[in-house]
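#lab-general

N.A. 3:47 PM
ok so I finally got the sequence cleaned up, no stray characters, all 105 residues accounted for. can someone with queue access submit it? mine expired

B.Y. 3:52 PM
send it over

N.A. 3:53 PM
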Amino acid sequence: MGDERTSRSAAGDSLQCRSLNLCVASLVEGRRFVRKEDAGRAGVKYVFQGRGKEVAAYSGLAADEVRALAETTRLTDLYGNPVTAETLLPGTLVYAEALLPEAVR
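B.Y. 4:20 PM
back already:
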């Protein structure tokens, strides 16, 4: 049996790709895209809302910007693992979730 990089489903899809698609879907499924904002020196923040939460996906942040953001915000990677100064992989997307005000009531 091959590793994830070479494993294929019956439909010919990469199994790793399928699991990534499921991870992305769990973050944004049932939420609508509401805005895109500049973030950091050259990054972008994509914001989705719904199901009582707001999810922000940060792309293009420099490592020092992610470290600074992680000091005040709980960041995760695509799989839900915490992103900290020690676990940061430069060049990857990071995600933040927050309860929407109406969900707190």
